[in-house]
Specification:
The structure is a single chain. This protein is an alpha/beta fold and 285 residues long. It has a single domain, classed as Carbon-nitrogen hydrolase (Nitrilase/N-carbamoyl-D-aminoacid amidohydrolase, 4-Layer Sandwich). The protein is built from seven helices and 16 strands. A six-stranded mixed sheet has the order 5-4-3-2-1-16, with helices on one face. A six-stranded mixed sheet has the order 8-9-10-11-14-15, with helices on one face. The protein has a two-stranded antiparallel ribbon with strand order 6-7. The longest helix has 19 residues.
Length: 285
Amino acid sequence: MSAFRAAALQMRSGVDPAANARAFEALAREAAAKGATYVQSPEMTGAVNRDRASMMAALRSEAEDIVVATARRLADELSIHIHVGSTAIARPDGKVANRAFLFAPGGALLATYDKVHMFDVDLDKGESWRESATYEPGREIVVADLPFAGIGLAVCYDLRFPQLFRAQALAGANVLTMPAAFTRQTGEAHWHVLQRARAIENGAWVISAAQGGPHEDGRETYGHSLIVDPWGRVVAEADHDRPGIVIADIDPAASLEARQKIPNLKNARDFAIRRTTGEAVRQAS
């Protein structure tokens, strides 16, 4: 494991995949020019489009998707690792995957991950989402062993399920990733505390590229792309919701150091749970 420079791309994807692919490419090139060798884009890089009919009409298979093709080409040309946080992909069975892609320098596909947890919620002010109406949830978590780190793949709402990241950490991940399109409402309340908590709980780096701002389809996302160190400190942040880049130098040794100081991964114990009725227990005379 060795130190590397990571970049999180903050985007404001619209409904046109080709336009979004161009925006993704411009930011990725800027990040590579600044020395980043691992570049991550946000959830739904290819399109943020709440109109299901329009989104389905633009949907393509993995082999035909423009964002996937762009990422593969950039990984080859720039000789960097490219992590597409996710994009919508047509599955062979007619369903839709919210899928992440990780490419190696040279353009080889190293890993894919389909978002496991669906954002089916009812928020304040009438804001409701039902991802399960469109997307088929994934059924396995992924850790990719790169030359410089073990990378755990996750997407957005997965952030609220700490057991996923604990499993990745136990499987060797020392960098956790949570590319997202957090709503403004939930982001203002929970984004920073959840990111820092996942880093602290697992003694791991966290890299989270985000969508940000008012989108073409009418939704608003929070932005604030983050990189958090294994002690829970925010080392880089886009302190706004505009497109841009955050960059930090990542030393995987800091993860080992944090885990040695607080070895909670080793100290965890199995336990049973016992429920009581709330009534006083009568002692035998």
